[in-house]
Amino acid sequence: MPPINYGRRYIRIRGLFNLRIDARSFTVTVILLGAAVALGIFGLMIGTMRLSVHEVFAALSGDAAKMTRTIVVDWRLPRVLAALVFGAGLAVSGSIFQSLTRNPLGSPDIIGFTSGSYTGALVAMLIVGSTSFIGIAAGALIGGLATAVLIYLLAFRKGTHGFRLIIVGVAASTILSSVNSVLLLRSKAEVALTAAAWGVGSLNGINWTELLPAMLIVIVLLFAAAVMGRPLRALELGEDAAKAHGIRVERSRIALIAIAVVLTAAPTAVMGPVSFVALAAPQIAIRFTKSAQSFAPVAAMGAFLLLGADIAAQRVVPGTILPVGVVTLSLGGLYLIAVLFKQARSGL
């Protein structure tokens, strides 16, 4: 039986794999990727030493002077790639949680996983005494996963339901925020300042050694999320409908939550907690595509938003490079107010 069209146009690709791609989602994804690439080139050009487009491409191809190549490849390219890949990972993570909870506020920022990663990093820095990147990253990863397990167990009652997951997650986030404040207040001033600076979320000074492991994890999990797209779409219809489609509900839900948690924890381990992207990117992508059937436009939107926010953080105050978390937090606050206002109006 042919698939239902729903009045939308599709692009068919026949060959080794028979693909059926929504035309509007494909167009939006291509436009967003083009805009993200243009932003990335601009990000490689700007800085204390401004470069031309020609110098950037010469550095990338290995034909530029040593100093120019060092600036582009060793200093600026890791930052741009981190923003693109981590933005995509955070956005897909937010999309998974929002689909599972069937709520636009059900993102890792709101339901505590980002706070859990921050708590893990603080424990590594302030209690264990680790100052190395690996130690802090491991703490953030363990904190995020431990928080996910705790929230899942507390929310589980004959299955895991979206609204209960949000309520338990918000409560856990509030408790973890209090724990984080206590840890910072009871530590030495210089250590607390370092931990607080990490907690803002920043791509300043990121290098290839820090970027590569987390980037590989995020890329692999983005493919895993794409494979799990069918079970996720079935779960959006409800447990009974998912079972009718042959989906193993709880097993699929655990796998999706694990993927989404690591997609949040891995970037957080490197750059600190960055809000707004996981919350807003999926909903903005849905507004453009009029569909929530694909992760591709969501990932492209996340990459574009985080890179755009990071470039704004470098340029908004002349002579000062702000942490990208400051920009995303400001935008996220405005977005959250808009969502709450819209939901309040729709409830009248």
TrEMBL record:
Give an example GO biological process: siderophore-iron import into cell
Task: Cite a GO CC annotation.
Answer: plasma membrane
Does the entry feature the keyword Iron-sulfur, yes or no? Answer: no
**Where is the protein localized?**
Cell membrane
What membrane topology is given? Answer: Multi-pass membrane protein
- Provide the GO MF annotations for this entry: transmembrane transporter activity
Q: Which UniProt keywords apply?
A: Cell membrane, Membrane, Transmembrane, Transmembrane helix, Transport
Residue spans crossing the bilayer:
21-46, 80-98, 110-128, 134-156, 163-185, 211-233, 254-282, 294-313, 320-341
Family the entry assigns:
Belongs to the binding-protein-dependent transport system permease family. FecCD subfamily.
Q: Matching PANTHER family, A to Z?
A: FERRIC ENTEROBACTIN TRANSPORT SYSTEM PERMEASE PROTEIN (PTHR30472), FERRIC ENTEROBACTIN TRANSPORT SYSTEM PERMEASE PROTEIN FEPG (PTHR30472:SF24)
Q: What is this protein called?
A: Iron chelate uptake ABC transporter family permease subunit
Record organism? Paenibacillus rhizovicinus
